[in-house]
Amino acid sequence: MNRLRLGMVGGGEGAFIGAVHRMAAALDGDWDVVAGAFSTDGGRNARTGELLGLEPQRVYPSLDALVAHEQALPAEQRIDALAVVTPNHLHAPMAIAALDAGFHVFCEKPMAMSVVEAEAIAAAAKASDCRFALAFTYSGYPMIEEARARVARGDFGAIRLVQVEYLQGWLSLPIDTDGNKQAEWRTDPARAGLGGCLGDIGTHAFQLAEHVSGLSAHSVSADLTTHVEGRRLDDDVSALLRFEGGARGTLKASQVAAGEENGLRLRIHGECGGLDWAQMEPNTLTLRWLDRPAEIVRTGGPGLHDGVAALTRTPAGHPEGYIEAFANLYRAFAAAIRGDGDRWYPGVTDGLRTMRFIEAVIANAGSDQKWTLVTPGENE
């Protein structure tokens, strides 16, 4: 198996998500980070490259320099894909530049700043015939695949209820004005986009709800709130969802739920039963039934869908978590690039759906309209 070569833009010294991408990419031996433009700060950029053991000439001062030099290298040396781990406002220009240059792209979420930008990325990916992946990390957990498979084969009957919540408390105080860089850009409309909490974690919740339920939300009724005085973007989101087929849903996302850590939870109920999964206990899936006792299903345990084993690395009882879930996406991305099977990973479709969700929530919350279509023109 040939190891693929990964470049990275953003994710320099001290950046949380860049390090996570590198750990996930390395876990299964599919990827080597060989190049990057990690920071606009020259010293930080150089130190990151040195820490990663990169050749100095492949630590670039900008994306333009990276693309130009990598394109000029022999095919067996140049990068195969670029990881974009910058603030949101750079996702579209950087992803499009890489795709236009013939490089596959693994991008942080949300996909872009707007639906228009997301559509431009989708067009660039199609024109280049390159792969585009998005870091909807939680969809890489084995128990999420188990949940999706059970819904798809009809274990719970026709789906009626989809409930998802994502609660954090880290923005309960105005740390975005006190020098916290992670908080600062996430609450800046010029860098984060139209949504704050909505774009940062609301998109994770929405993508997970659609992915596991197998249903598309066609309309939304929403409320956006900014609890911390002076903050420029929302820090709290509540939404009612109407799904195809008649299912109803609720979505709650907040970054001012004081005391919460990373409380992502998904519950789906059909005619005869339902499921319950929580990210902070990711190796457990609870199944509840109308006519029999509840069941506990565990990662690595008996009775799992065949596809789940491919997402699991250790025997039952050895916890697998966030990095392993992220690595499952990088492994599927590598398989797609090699043409090795048809493993699922979040990509253009998920990106466009979540961007349309963001814009529908903002439009609805800012109007007196009761319901707003997630995809205008559909279901009218």
TrEMBL record:
- The residue range of the signal peptide is none
InterPro entries xrefs: Gfo/Idh/MocA-like_OxRdtase_N (IPR000683), Gfo/Idh/MocA_oxidoreduct (IPR051317), GFO_IDH_MocA-like_dom (IPR055170), NAD(P)-bd_dom_sf (IPR036291)
Q: Name one GO molecular function term.
A: nucleotide binding
Please list the residue ranges annotated as the Gfo/Idh/MocA-like oxidoreductase N-terminal domain: 5-134
Please give the coiled-coil regions recorded for this protein.
Answer: none
Indicate the segments forming the GFO/IDH/MocA-like oxidoreductase domain, all copies.
145-275
> Record's Gene3D superfamilies?
Dihydrodipicolinate Reductase, domain 2, NAD(P)-binding Rossmann-like Domain
PANTHER family on file: CONSERVED EXPRESSED OXIDOREDUCTASE (EUROFUNG), OXIDOREDUCTASE
Protein name as it appears in the record: Oxidoreductase
**Native source organism of the sequence:** Sphingomonas aurantiaca
Q: What is the lineage of its organism?
A: Bacteria, Pseudomonadati, Pseudomonadota, Alphaproteobacteria, Sphingomonadales
